[in-house]
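Second attempt. The first submission of VOC family protein had a stray character pasted in from the spreadsheet, which I only caught after the job came back as garbage. Lesson logged: always re-copy from the clean sequence file. Corrected sequence (143 aa) follows.
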Amino acid sequence: MRSSRVQTEDGLIGHAEIRVGDTVVLAFDRRPEWPAMPSLLRVWVPDADAAFGRAIERGAAVVTELGDNAFGQRGGRVKDPLGNIWWVTQQVETVPDDVMWRRLQQPEYAENMRYAQESLDAELSGSAAGRSSAPRQGAGDRS
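This time the job returned cleanly.
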């Protein structure tokens, strides 16, 4: 069962969530220049700052610094010594769709989205500067 999907301006799936039992699996389109990798996993934690800090202490490298997003989440990404990327996420608040879309128009949330996309793209493509593509309202659904 698909629980949400967001298409980006460039026509790719930028974010999709599939619910399997009580687990939500995150997926998105791979860009042609990105390498095959072991995995990119998003994990939900009660305290993103603490979990992120523990990952760094244990040898993970920062891919995306911690930040607050338009979806009511706080999180960041780390790469473990084996090459897996972990998206460490905490749900801070429940945000209705209309509020989320309004937030994505606000500079601080738009910047967070741009940085999150560009930092991941730079890591996966091996380039100094990553790409981003803003979400389009109506190009997917969130339920």
